[in-house]
Every structure is written in structure tokens, then in C-alpha cells.
Amino acid sequence: MVRRLLSFVRSCSALGAAALFVLPLYFALVASFGESGSPPSGTVQWWPAEFHWENYARIFQVVPLWKYTLNSLIVVAWAVPLTVLTSSLAGFAISELRPPNAGRLVVVSVVLMLIPGAAVWLFRFQLLVWFGLLDTLWALILPVVAASSPLFVLLFYWNFRRIPEETFDAARMDGASPLVVWRRIALPLTRPTFVAVVILAFVFYWSDFISPVLYIYNPSGYTLPIGLQLLNQLGSTNWPILMAGAVYMTLPVLVLFILLQRLFLSDRSLAELFDRN
Amino acid sequence: MAATPTKTSSRSLYRSKLYLLLAPFLLGSLVLTVIPALATAMVAFMDYNTVGPPEWVGFENFGRLLRSDYVRISLWNTLIFVALAVPLRLLAALGLALLLHRRGPLFGLYRAAVYLPTIIPEVAYALVWLWVFNPMFGPLNAALNWLGLEGPAWLAEPATARLAIVIMLSFQIGEGFIVLLAGLQSIPRSFFEAARVDGASAWQAFTRITFPMIAPWLMLLTFRDLIMSLQNTFTPSFVLTYGGPFYATTFVPLLLYEVAFDFFDFGLAAALLVLVYLLMAIFVMSILNIMQARGVVEG
Questions:
Q1: Which of A265, A267, A268 to mutate to test the interface with B (most CBs of B within 10 A)?
Q2: Cα separations in angstroms, B280 against A140, A229, B193, B230, B287
Q3: Which of A93, B87, B94, B248 is the most exposed place for a label (fewest CB within 10 A)?
Q4: Mutate to test the interface with A, among B30, B99, B120 (most CBs of A within 10 A)
Q5: Predicted local confidence at residue A269, as pLDDT
Q6: Could you report the per-residue pLDDT of A90-104, keeping only the tens digit for each?
């Protein structure tokens, strides 16, 4: 009896906690359909009184959001494939190296992960000036050279390491180079990690607000995050318009998240992530 | 078949080629992260405005830092933020991981819900909370009203503005949550079964099994959160309050941005970074010392 009661309490608090994380976002979605220009009701609104879809058209008229969306898409189109390339190559190489060096490289990756972006703001600006990349979209894409985040390298490393060594032996006997083994054998065997890194890298570049604030000055190079901030500066009390902008920018991420959720949050895949075999 | 290379030489050739695959990541990290971080430490001792040549000035930048009221305010704000946000974020991640660490379709959905705020683009997320915290029309005060409470003015008052940023960032804990979930999952079930056979209570099982098993993860997350808290206040304070009201949300990253990119005083900005890292290093060392003294981690 007591156990059943405890289980019930646990289920209720789980539901409550989950609701707490989703509600602010849900309220923003509801508010995005409100009448533009008129103040919201001031009471908790569970469902829009009317659906003002035109708010989603207005955001493109208030600021040139198409242009900014296009810039963001260009950045993502370059950055995501290159990130997958550099991070999977590095992860594969680490997994194939012998113990002392492999371990050292894992430690290096973890240490790199602990260096916050703010520590390199200043000198990266200087580098971009020297390379002539300041105020171009390349300034935003540049982190791909370093695999965007050491986390992606580690994710690939953890997964490549799980492939039994013998799988590659035949190919190596035939004199295949690491590049061939990586592309023909290793990469096709780690599809879930591949997809996860694609999604995480997409979110990384799609959301990046700090880099364009620091390195982009010409409005023709603005990306979507800057566009949203402009929307905020132009009409910071027009809530329906602001929320429509926020929803518009979040939508692609949300679609991808529904894919990611299966990979990361199912009972089984979590156990696999930390399986020690 | 023509001259087959010996097995060992083909192996070593294979291994040396592996370093070619590593080259982009290692060189990229060196050029984009390691060298910039080290160069910043040197610029801290220079007068440099990005246009003219740098000039060595010794400790002058640090002297200017210590005399500046803005620096003192931003350090104080950051300290308050860290003292509130780091424990809150960690406890929330741990509590939720313990609560939602369970099989079942609904629980999978709940875990996704907890992770959701973490992937919302920073600016969009900040705009959502700008609306949530609006004292007149926002849903938070509307909900408080409904409960018969009067909500504060949130972003318009110094104390509540800082608190507001702590609150909104306490919902973006997906990474820590996932890591702790995985940590919990890696504890063998047999440990708990053995404890139950021995008649241990749930609390005893937690303090004797669960906590020691995930303590290393907790420590790693604490340090990561501590270091990241130097950066993750940037977008909220930029979008929500731009450092106000009365400098209450001028945290170190925002001040750093203003000094470096509004005034192009790179020397002073670099000195600020070095100072903050020194303070943080001292802080981390003292935590480690206390933990060692208590025997939580082996020295």
C-alpha cells in the first residue's frame, strides 16, 4: 500500500517537473498567435482566443528575416558536414591508436572542452582580422576546423572504440589506408552517432548568437539570432510578433529534437552510451 | 602479387597515417583555442587596441582593474550568480535524474521535456523569458496572481533581475541531466538487490551506493558548470536587460564584451579574463583540498 502510494507520488511529481520545463515554451507559442500590437490579457492563457497567423508573415516585413535565414542556412550547410568530417576522422584516429597516445588525446579533448569560449573571444577576433575573414560568414564557420566541439570527437571515439578490432583487420591486410577503413567500414557502423552529431552541430551553428555579435558588422551578413535581437530592439513590447519570431527560429530545432529524443532519451540507448565492454 | 611489405611496416605506415586524420582537429584546436587562450594571457600585460602595435605595460592593466567600480560590480554580480546558479542547476539535474530514471513510455517523454529548453536557440529562449517575466502581461505573474500572490517587477528591480537570470538558466540543464542519467544507469542493479536483502532503507541505498557511484560525475559537472558560468550569462544579460537595471546584471562576460568590443581596450579585457581565471582556479583548488581532506576523492 505504502509502496503504491509512493509510486503514485513519484509519477505525479515527474509529470509536474516535466510540465514546469515545457510550460514557458508553450505559453510563448500561445502568445505568438495573439493580436499584434494589442497587449495580452494578463491572465494565464491556455489556448489562443483567435489564431493570428499573419504574425508569422509580419516578422518578415519588420526585419529582412529571409536574408538572415538564408545566411544562417549557408553557415549550417557548410558547418554541419565539415564538423561531421573533422570530428569523425579525429574520433576514428584516436580509437585506432595504441593505449598511451589514445588516452592522452582523450585527456586533451576533455581539457579543450573545459576552455570556455569567452577565453578566446579577443584573440580569435585578431586571427580573423589577420586572415581577412572578419565580417564574412567564414568567421562563423571557422570553428569547424577544430571539429566545432571536442565533445563531437569524443562521441565518435566512444562509438568507434566499440567496434571489434577484427572488423577492420581484413581491410588492413589488403593494405587499405585509414581513410578507406574509416569511410567504407567504420562510418556506416556508427549511424546513430552520425545522426546525433549532425543534429547537435546544427543546433550549435543555428543558435550561435555570440559569434555574429562579435565578428559580423555588416547587416547583409547578419544571421537569424541577430535578426531576432533586431526584432526585439524594434518592438520590444509587441509580444505576439516577438514570440512568433522565437517560434519561427525554434521550429527547425524542434523538428530535429524529435529525432534526437529517440536517440538520446530512450531507455536502451542511454545504457549503451555508458556500456563498458 | 608484387613485393608485399612486411606486416610490421604496413602496420606502422597505417598508424602514421592515422595522425593525418587527426591533423585538422589538433591543428584547428591549437590555432583557434590553445594559442588564442595563451596569447590572451600575454595581452593582459600589454596596452593593445587592435590597431596600433602592442606595448608592454607590466601590471598596469591589473591596477586599472582593481580601481574600477564596474569591475568590482561585475565580479560581485558574477559571484552571486555562481553561488546561486551552480548549486541550483546541479541539484535540479540530480533530482530530476533520480526522479525520471525509470523505464516506461511516459518517463521517456518526461526526460525529453526536461531536455527541451536546453536545445532552444539562446536568443529565442531569452525572448521567451523576456515575455514570461513581464510583470504586467507575462504568464509568470499571471500565474502568481491566480495563486493569490503578487509577483515582483522581475527585470525592472536589481535583485529580482539577477534572480530571473538564475531561474531561466536553471531550466537549461539538459547536459548535466543526461550525464547523471547515464551515470545512474551504469550502476549495476545487483548492488541495490544486495542492499535490499541486507534490509537497507532507500535513503541508505542512496547515500551508500548511488551517491558514491555518481560523485565523480557530480564533481566533473560542478567544475564544468563553474567554468561555463563565465559565459552562459552573456546572451540572457545582453537580450533581457543589457546589464541593467543599475548594473545588476552586468556579469563578467558582458563587461568583457564592452571593454573589448566597444572600447577596443584588449589589454584591459585580457587582464579581466586572467583575473577571473585566477580567482576560479583558487576556488577550484580549495574545493578539491576540502574534498581531499574529507576523503571524498583520493589524492
A1: A265
A2: 29, 31, 42, 10, 11
A3: B87
A4: B120
A5: 53
A6: 999 998 888 788 888
